[in-house]
User: Fold this.
Amino acid sequence: MNCEELIRYLSDYIDNGLSESLRADAEEHLATCHNCHVVLDTTRQTIVLYKEANREGIPVDRRSALFGQLQKALAARRAARGPS
Amino acid sequence: MTSPSPSIESLRAGDPQALESLFQLHSDRVYRLALGLLRERQAAEDVVQETFLSAMTHLDRFEGRSSLGTWLYRVAYNASLTRLRERPTEPLPPDEPEAGEPPLPRALVEWDLTPEEMLMDSEARRHLDAAIAALPASLRAAFILRDVEELSTLETADTLGISEGAVKVRLHRARLALREHLAEYFGKRAARKEGEK
Assistant:
């Protein structure tokens, strides 16, 4: 496997989606190619970074307000439709 | 996940507890997807509101082919895309983002910060935000759903209305583009530090 092929298969390699023989080829290349090893390592870091950076959900002070608005809006829609 | 997923029957019957369970279970994910795409808290909150309101009003359209969660993400994704299209400066998804090979990585330096340090560093954090903001929405969505929300390839495909193969291609392109953007920043940062010595 050369660098170009390694990059093509990089995501499948990270996601354990390669066949056994392709995975072995990729590992053989990675063992000797510093640049591809850096790309693999920094791609994995990129994924971890965004996972960690995007953990926040709806702000606590907005959560119940949003749910309240939703309930009101649904009630208004039901009222507009009239009794079923 | 703390509360069980409510049944579609209880939601159709208007059970208030079922609605609350649905909101508890999926609103944060819907919010993160919208925030990731729109990069604005108020807009993301509006999408949460619109998503649940639309889903509850159109429960009869839910056919049960995917999970309720996937259905909600699909509604949220479409609501977010509609808002993005209204922004004149937003890079809209190219017609065929899967075509051709992505460019080969050019920035090949090792990074001098761990992920934990990078999240605490305001300059690095700005580059993190800029990198994802520069991605076309179609790649951003695939990356958020697969790598941030950890949906499966199939669930992501269902949400985005594309094939599993297309999800893999978009995810690969997104990862490489984000890595390249950050690696360029780290390269400049290392050169700057070297110059300060």
Notes: The CA atoms of residues 2 and 29 of chain A lie 7 Å apart.
